[in-house]
Here is the input.
Amino acid sequence: MLSVENVRFAHEGSEEEYHFHLTAKPGEVIALMGASGSGKSTLLDLLSGFLMPLSGQMLWEGKAFQNKPPEQRPCTILFQRDNVFGHLSANANVALGLPKGKHDPDRIEKALEQVGMAGKGEQKAQTLSGGQQQRVALARSLVREQPFLLLDEPFTGLDDDTRHRMLPLVKAMAEDHRRCVLMVTHDRQDAQMIADRLMVMDNHRLVEHSL
Amino acid sequence: MAYSTGAPFLLHLTLSRFLPSALPGLTCAALLLALVCTLLWQIAGLSGGEATLFASLGGRDWALLRFTFFQAALSTILALTVGLALAWALSHQRRFFGRSLLVALFSSALVMPTLVVVLGLITVLGRRGWLASGSETLFGVGLPFSIYGLGGILLAHAYLNGSFCVQTLLGRLEAIPAERRKLVRSLGLSAWQRFRLIEWPAVRGSIAPLATTIFLLCFTSFAIVLLLGGSPRYNTLEVAIFEAVKLDFDLARALDLALLQLLVCAVLVTLSSRFRVVDTVVATNPWRFAWPDSRAARALQWSLITFGAAVFVTPLLAIVVDGIGADFTRLVQERSFQQALITSLLLASLSALLATGVALLLAAARRDLVLPNRLGARKGASAVASLLSFSALLYLAFPALVLSLGFFLLARQLPGGLTLWASVALLVANLLMALPFALAIFGPALEKIGARHDQLAFSLGLSGWQRWRLVEWPLLRHDVGMVLALSFCLSLGDLGVIALFGSQDFATLPWYLYQKMGSYRTDDAAGVALIMLVLTLTVYLWAARFQRGGYAQR
Here is the structure.
């Protein structure tokens, strides 16, 4: 279970304070919505260790992780862009998620197959389409086996068709691998398609809404 | 550079629409090329034709050429290594007291008077320098190495050019998207893996153009080799030309050496023209890490920054400490000093205005020839744009000593006297010296402004002076200040052309300082060096402070 307990945060030099409080179960997909600049990505940055909270606790299975560096946190994050290294092959991009010395070609191939990229492992990432690149990034998060996945609008900018093929992949990943998913989105339809719950940033606070 | 302006919407507009903005720049480029051809003609004409071409050159001159190549190659490798290491360390350590000043000081190396830097290095590392004195006091022995010779030349080149690299490479590293940095951190990649995956690809594109520029600067290096070479064994072509004219009065040898130098530089510039001019990249949204690097990586970063800062600042500090002790009251009353100061300030101001004006015209013409919405889509436009860019790089192919030799020969045939032609030669040399850097600043800026604002400006009917006042000037004024400062400082510290024309009647501050150093008037030399250092740093740092704001607006 992921717990964010009374986490407070303010950007340097700003008096505006954000307040976050939520819990999420394994296998659950939570959609995060709100106006631009409302603090959705800030929450993801706090969870992934790129920002430090002023106070509060962040726990996974009862263990606080807010004092751990990004690479030691139990999460994987996907951004809107720059999720792959164009000059590396799809295989090499996925392998980056594996712990040192645990390079397993079968595991990489299987992960690529799961995201519908079978047979494209040798291709340079820069030759792939935007949707395919995001699939490679998703495959990497599969091999990382971290219990929760943070999605910072990774499907924005993709065409409807591709987006609608990517979203079920995320849902399947959450259900099959018991991952907890926090997905920032501006599209209510996307949220309705795969999310179990909807949280909205309102006045710098997280508020539960109906889907 | 790719522009997201869509289809060339202005193709239906006639050529005449863009001629008013392109023509002055094209005329300037043609004039520069014509001037250089005339000077070249002077040199080639007096060399006696093909039959005696290179006839005066012997085995020692080919050794000279080999050494010039060798020291330039080593200096380039050293400067790039120093620059990359420092830029890497600074890109990871973004918050510490004095960081902005340190980065600004590194970037000022580009305009730092070479003579002043050399004097500073001698004060610290010379036979009776700070380090030698300290070593003798503490251990009873002097330094095991000498500042004179290849080591000194390499050190001075790495000092000036390595620092110059820092700003360019740091800009590239800081412009790496925040998502990239977050991704590699969240994947737990090591510092080396991060360097290989995101940092090296970010700087890789700048390495070739930087290396070419630095190689050419070191290949044609004059003041450093003249002062630190120590013996004819460590001479370069540039110094050999100077000695042939000034010391041996062997004009035939000077001409052959100049032609050889010209030939090699022209080949190098042609080969390097495939590399884009290095333009400055400034991160508009610099990322600050909540989590620092590993202890080992941080230790390495701090060691590099501390060592780099110490090596860079100590010679400047030496100039300040020694300079303060100079008898300024007597110095400023000396007529020769007053004359040198006035000449330098006057020439530097005129050169700055001239270089800024010409660079703006060249950049405007280049913009018209490059942007697909203007003349860029027309046949032959890119070839003309390349020729225009080449006219701004002439200084690299046509070094100061060769240029002044051409003027020196021209002055003997034309009325007006040597002083007049010396002033003209200095102005032209300073203009050519500043142009590569000025065009690297104005070129990308004007192209970016055009790509972004052309559609709106044309739809509103903004053109000519009105457009310049409302669109270009507000977005470019910081850069204009920077180019003015840069050209002023480059001109103020140059010992190239004046080395041939300098005399009792006609002197600039660098020439005056060189004379004082040569006559062992160390107190006076230290005082003049301090004045030059303060002048250069004040002007350059003042302009650099205001330039950063200009990037964010474009």
